[in-house]
Amino acid sequence: MVMVNYRLSGQQGTKWPLYIQDAAASVAWVANNIAQYGGDPNNIFIMGFSAGAYLTHMLSIDPKWYTAINFDRNRIKGYVAISGQTRAHGTVAADLGIQQNQLMSLRADAMPLGHVKKTEKPIHIFVGEYEGQTITDNYDYYNQLASKGSTNLFIYTNPKKDHGGMRDGLGDANSPTRTKILDFIRIYSSTVNLSPNIAYRKPVTVSSSENTVNTGEKAVDANGNTRWSSAYSDTQWIYVDLGATYNVNRVKIAWEAACAKNYYLESSGDAKSWTNVRTVTNNAALVNDHTGLSRNARYIRIYATQRATAYGYSIYEFEVYGTLTG
């Protein structure tokens, strides 16, 4: 891990966009020099908190900052933005001589929401439950990126955290944000033989839904705050259509407290004939990470036979990993 620095607004006449240029130069220096310090130049991830997350967003969405210094942006594996500004930033507005609420109308180029497009690299956004407008703005940014066809895009709201709590929580080994950051890096690192989540936003079919909110597609939207929940009975199922045949090597399930005690993980080529991949009994874990699989399939199903609670089954995320066959 490398902590990079940049000039703050007001220091030695620094104003927007000099601190973005500083951030881009710092990233390039790390990528070009990290090998001599024992780091891997092929696994560079950019992460920032608050104003640093604003810079992370700007580097991830606007290629001109890297282009200006002849740095290949494809060398970056992914971006993690924690509690960043996407619509309004007081310092940026002051530097430009306008009000915060004028940024998107007068200088949209200065904010991430002014550059919405299909993204090239994985991005994970984090906000705290008590961050107010920051939540709204980041979810708006996430949804707009998704509407442009962006994939490998993730967002998570950490419960009971305000702005300072999001920063301080990174030092907590039990922090869900910290866990998700490490998992994100592990998945998209080139040293790990795992492909991206191929179930992301793919068609889902379920046996039932508890209501019209917690529906099947919520299990594959990469949003750790939404979920699918079934009717309150034992035998229920959910399957995802990957759209083509993949050699599936991993399936990860993130349950709500209403998890399955017993279930089968199954595969199929036609969604009619199912083959057992793994049998799970007496499960009490809320995250089941099935690795070391090798199954050619287009459809992957979770077939639950016994609940752990009196409620139905509830899944936050149903992730599938593998490589396209043929």
Automatic annotation (TrEMBL):
GO terms for molecular function: hydrolase activity. The keyword Amino-acid biosynthesis does not apply. SMART domains: FA58C. Residues 187-323 form the F5/8 type C domain. SUPFAM superfamilies: alpha/beta-Hydrolases (SSF53474), Galactose-binding domain-like (SSF49785). It comes from the Eukaryota. Keywords: Hydrolase. InterPro entries: AB_hydrolase_fold, BD-FAE-like_dom, FA58C, Galactose-bd-like_sf, GDXG_lipolytic_enzyme. Pfam families: BD-FAE, F5_F8_type_C. This is F5/8 type C domain-containing protein. It comes from Didymodactylos carnosus. The lineage of its organism: Eukaryota, Metazoa, Spiralia, Gnathifera, Rotifera.
